[in-house]
């Protein structure tokens, strides 16, 4: 098969690089306050909040890609997420 | 071999589309191509052609729909002319630069203002840079034959570029002449099965790919170079496709140009489209008068037939190029291209402008041009800018 | 048929590391679209923010087939894709246009009207960030009255073009409005559309932090206020029958709607809006609600 140089791209993580470096503020989850409502997972524009654990109800932030927009912190009904300034 | 029918150029296109078992047709009317899509509508509605027929709301959408269809791997076709081609121009470029195989018939027609429905080549030539392979047909037989061949050429994995088959307004589009139509079974054997194309890109959820997203300067030039490589391959594949076509029909199209009585000629007239027939008649008459003149018909202008043209022209004393088009502030477009292609051979290349807005280019005009070439050889002085044939100069007094 | 968050599939069709601004509503919308259709679709994307969100060659952030196309051409291109799939016997793939408001309400409206009139079997989703955002926040016909943009420094002087009602006038099987602030309502609408044969139009409100001038963490809050103040209405028109959906159902009565100022004051693009302009805006919103009420009552 002929290999052609064509403007066709493959789906891959990190298309725009490790977008975690864009952050000025970083979300920190207080797992004690978290009631597993999954609103943060739902609304994260990046899909950078992972659902882990056996029941997939524990949430964990992927800091490689989190852009620090703060939506998760703003939307959490239990104020379980705080935005902390990056060093 | 085939069945002979009296067909207009437009109906020849429609019959070719039917034989090629095109799967998606995008249709929008514009004089003088409309009867192409009308005839195809009849074929589809009475079950002779099993195609999806999209009655789009503009030519821009016609080309967009063809790109969408081509992106699924389906065989797509549309037809247009003049302002329709200009309106779809943006997406014509997209099809060429995106490497979307498809075939489009363009009935060459003058641009406005003023409105004109008659033949001129500016519409097609304005798209000579965008990666489309472009054929000019001399007669209705060529129209049918080239349209069928175009699907094979376009879908060849070493080409994968869209192809334009052009025919002159009214002279070919609306004039009925006998045309030999190949058998369906012969065409089935000649063309790949419609929709069988898979690579290098089709839309398929099982293998998600993104076509056309942003490319930085460090990646961009190579895409363009690849298109040029495809054009290079096309030179051979057009000839091959033409030769294979000859095996099933007896009509061989194994060259990008068609020379006529050139081997011992001093002077050669180059033209394209429907006027080529008159050029050949003029050559015969001039030969009887003792002029050693020949003619060359350009069948393909993209890819540009450098080698063939240079081979024919290299030992000639003068070349004449007849443009049924004009580039304001420059001159005849094909004149410029051919002069440039032959520049290192140091042969005078004289330009002629004829037939704009459908004004007849008659055998007498070619005879006049042929004699003019000989005057130039004798006087040693060419005319620059190009000579306008049959211009009514009295209008300017 | 209520969907709950926990019912949503885990799989992501928008991959990590896309090029969207922080807080981007288009990114949220695309994620939700992926979860609604679970990857069984192809996207036709005209020039818009999403053209860039995909990221540059040789990678793409979108895990479904994407055909990028020229600005005005998305609807017609989708038409061709659908025809191609039909010709090839591929009937179980959704053909989805994902276009911005510019490519829908302005330059793309001709092709959009064409596919609607022909009732082509595609889902057309306009994600509406109410301006030409990709080129740096210029006014489109979807920009609301009074909003600042780089081509309306003193605020837009025309009201927002009502594309969903234009689509309804084409008598297509399904028209809906949605908001990224109410993703479950959006997902339900996408899934409903996917079951219908014919032309489906969904207009998705997409509050843009960058263009509307609010902090990136407020995207959902702004989106919710748009609906709660009645500035954005959630509805669907199925075979000509109009019905309000979600929280909009309870907002027919004007007193139930929050004051519009609550919505406007969060956005920098309305920071210079005058009281007269706000009055006109309020009147316009009220008139629209009267229209929707009438549509509801006339069945």
Task: Write up what this structure looks like.
The complex is a heterotrimer of chains A (87), B (397) and C (299). In chain A, strand 3 (49-52) and strand 4 form a beta hairpin. Chain A has helices spanning 39-43, 71-75; strands at residues 8-11, 25-29, 49-52, 58-61, 81-85. With 87 residues, chain A is of the alpha+beta class. Chain A has a domain at 31-85: Alpha-Beta Plaits (2-Layer Sandwich). The model of chain A has no long low-confidence stretch (mean pLDDT 96). Chain A starts with 7 loop residues before the first strand and ends with a strand. Chain A has a two-stranded antiparallel sheet. A two-stranded antiparallel sheet of chain A has the order 3-4. Chain B has 2 domains: 2-249, 3-Layer(aba) Sandwich (Rossmann fold); 257-396, 3-Layer(aba) Sandwich (Rossmann fold). Chain B is built from 13 helices and 16 strands. In chain B, strands 3-2-4-5-7-6-13 form a 7-stranded mixed β-sheet, with helices on both faces. The longest helix of chain B is centred in the middle third of the chain and has 33 residues, at 217-249. Chain B is globular. The N and C termini of chain B lie far apart (58 Å). The relative contact order of chain B is 0.12. With 299 residues, chain C is an alpha/beta fold. Chain C has a single domain (6-297), classed as Thiamin diphosphate (ThDP)-binding fold, Pyr/PP domains (Rossmann fold, 3-Layer(aba) Sandwich), CATH 3.40.50. Chain C contains 11 helices and 9 strands. Chain C has helices spanning 25-37, 49-53, 74-87, 102-106, 109-117, 163-169, 183-194, 209-212, 219-228, 260-264, 275-297, and strands at 41-45, 59-60, 66-68, 94-100, 123-128, 174-179, 200-205, 235-238, 241-244. An 8-stranded mixed β-sheet of chain C has the order 3-1-4-5-7-6-8-9, with helices on both faces. Chain C starts with 24 loop residues before the first helix and ends with a helix. Chains in contact: A-B, A-C, B-C. At the B-C interface, helix 3, helix 5 and strand 9 of B face strand 1, strand 3, helix 3 and helix 5 of C.
